[in-house]
Automatic annotation (TrEMBL):
EC number assigned by the record: 5.1.3.13
Pathway the protein takes part in: Carbohydrate biosynthesis; dTDP-L-rhamnose biosynthesis
Family: Belongs to the dTDP-4-dehydrorhamnose 3,5-epimerase family.
InterPro entries: RmlC-like, RmlC-like_jellyroll, RmlC_Cupin_sf
GO cellular component, one term: cytosol
Protein name per its UniProtKB record: dTDP-4-dehydrorhamnose 3,5-epimerase
GO BP, one annotated term: polysaccharide biosynthetic process
Superkingdom of this protein's organism: Bacteria
SUPFAM superfamilies, sorted: RmlC-like cupins
Molecular functions (GO terms): dTDP-4-dehydrorhamnose 3,5-epimerase activity
Site positions per UniProt: Participates in a stacking interaction with the thymidine ring of dTDP-4-oxo-6-deoxyglucose: Y139
UniProt entry keywords in alphabetical sequence: Isomerase
Reaction equations catalysed: dTDP-4-dehydro-6-deoxy-alpha-D-glucose = dTDP-4-dehydro-beta-L-rhamnose
Length: 185
């Protein structure tokens, strides 16, 4: 059993799997293809990814892959807390350039479905945060792209001052949305 809610951009979904707890701990079915299909989400995931970010303020993103390696992502947090962000980069979309920001944590047990045509990124809000996500396409290095996390046109509030962010060199060099080729119609 799971609950699916549309966000401010309806193609981005917030998913809440059931969690059953007792004196031993808990059990949760975080993904079941049949249950997702019954909820209107029929995707074939081909890879699971797991990241650990040791420091609060670690920002990963904003990333996406272009065709034929474009990915839907199902993101959840196993330990800690993040602000998860999805930016609509579909040129013909009425929500082009807008974003959804949702807090995901081990405590709230929510997941975010980020569809193809969105750039994705997150920032850690607790130390030693572990993020897991499923993707519908394998990694294609030649199709790996990004958008500047600090693009003023996006107006993303990352909740942590930019001078305290921990970023990779790659994530510091992504172009602004206005300078990005149109990968998605």
């Amino acid at each position: 059993m799971l609950s699916v809610e549309a966000t401010a951009i309806p193609d981005v979904k917030l998913i809440s799997p059931k969690k059953f707890g007792d004196h031993r701990g808990f059990f949760s079915e975080t993904y079941n293809r049949a249950s997702f299909k019954d909820a209107g989400i029929d995707l074939e995931f081909v890879q699971d990814n797991h990241s650990l970010s040791a420091t609060v303020g670690t920002l990963r993103g904003l990333h996406f892959q272009s065709a034929p390696f474009a990915q839907d992502k199902l993101v959840r947090v196993a330990k800690g807390r993040i602000l998860d962000v999805a930016v609509d980069i579909r040129a013909s979309s009425p929500t082009f350039g807008r974003h959804v920001a949702v807090e995901l944590s081990a405590e709230n047990w929510k997941q975010l479905l980020v569809p193809v045509g969105f750039a994705h990124g997150f920032i850690t809000l607790e130390p030693d945060t572990e993020v897991l996500y499923k993707v519908t396409a394998l990694y294609g290095p030649q199709n790996d792209h990004g958008i500047a996390f600090d693009d003023p046109a996006l107006s993303i509030d990352w909740r942590i001052p930019h001078d305290r962010l921990v970023l990779s060199d790659k994530d510091r060099k992504h172009p602004r949305l206005a300078d990005l080729p149109r990968y998605f119609g």
